[in-house]
Amino acid sequence: MVLQHHFTWQVLFRLTTATAFACFASSGAMTQEKDTYLVTEFGATADDDVLDTQAFQKAIDVAARHGGTVRVPKGRFITGRLQLPSGVRLFLEEGAVLQGSADFRDYGQGRWTDSFLFAENAERITIEGPGTLDGADCEIPGGEEGFRGPHAIRFVRCRNVTIRDVTITRAGNYAVLCNDSEDFLISGVKFRGGHDGVHAQACRRFRVVDCDFRTGDDCLAGCDNVDFEVARCQINSSCNGFRLGCVHLRVHDCRFWGPGEYPHRITIKKGKPRTNMLSAFVHFAPTDRNPKLPSDDWLIQNCTMDTVDAVYLYDFEKGVWQTGQPAKRLVFENIRAQNIALPLRVLGDKDRQFDLTLKNVLIALRDDRADQPVLDIAQFGRLNLENVVLQNSGKQPVLRARDGREIHLHHVEAKPTNPQPFLWSNVEKVSQD
């Protein structure tokens, strides 16, 4: 029943997003046929330390009036904040580096919302590579955590946006921050260092495909989102792969691995750089954001995980940034997770709305952390395990469950052989074969 529900949603999601993305993809193709504006023709000069903000902004404004393309040639260009209007395409050629100023005052007033590229109430925007957007690790003294600087790209109430084939590196804060925006395609983007990769708040219909995340903070984050698909991505972090709140999330054909290639930024400042990847997925619904939506209808398919602390974490009672809205239905299918340090741990809400399905799944704890359950779940509605292998040291049950409505176990194997592989209490219905 759960899988059929996901299949139905997948069909509807694909039809809806295919129509939406076809519309703005075709408009992007039309943009390429229109006028192209080379930034050097507006006074920008490469490979010096002179700010080219005015030259870039003039080229952008002219291109936007005609639905054209701003072309950035090979070389390094330094600017402060740039505003992107509707209908503009920013194209960074091979070898082009658009580098942000090292002075936070070139982006605004030193506020958390400052950003390198900014768009508000805009549509039909494309940012395209193969060049690089370099945030230069710009810091704001007294900013969040005492140092966080401007975001690399920020969208507010925007729609029909494409970010394709660029590298975003050294972002002063988030690489891509989106608020109340819809119909985004983020494709073939490389995220290097910085903080969060894609942070979306109250956004709808996002596709993130063929991207390579190697971030110092969460790869994908935010809450109150609807209809997200993440496909064929590389996920590496010194924090979390997904710290997300979303209704209708599909993640498939992705690789998760740790440790992080870029240390968690705040730990660098503290002099003790940390690189362990905390979790592949963690529920995100912070009360201070007053979230309106739960996390519901998640389908995670065809993924591998290696040397990640946890596959999934959810604690509705005491979890950090997890108590604003509950999580509900979650399916893991065709998953291979190895060298895991912590149990897949769930403490749901008291109404027991959380349902978990594992189908064709292997989770193996690493040798030095193997004396604990692989799956530890409490206050849940339905737990369904089908063709599942759970591996620990054999000294503890692989499954510990309590305060639930139903457990269904079909072809579940504990490795190594364990005289008491499953332990449950206060569960209303259990079926096992």
UniProtKB/TrEMBL annotation:
Residues 1-31 form the signal peptide. GO terms for biological process: carbohydrate metabolic process. Keywords: Glycosidase, Hydrolase, Signal. InterPro entries: GH28_Enzymes (IPR051801), Glyco_hydro_28 (IPR000743), PbH1 (IPR006626), Pectin_lyas_fold (IPR012334), Pectin_lyase_fold/virulence (IPR011050). SMART domains: PbH1 (SM00710). One of its GO terms (molecular function) is polygalacturonase activity. Its EC number is 3.2.1.15. The keyword Hydrolase applies. The keyword Cytoplasm does not apply. Pfam families: Glyco_hydro_28. It is an enzyme of class 3 (hydrolase). It comes from the Bacteria. PANTHER family: PECTIN LYASE-RELATED (PTHR31339), PLASMIN AND FIBRONECTIN-BINDING PROTEIN A (PTHR31339:SF9). Belongs to the glycosyl hydrolase 28 family. This is Polygalacturonase. It comes from Thermogutta terrifontis.
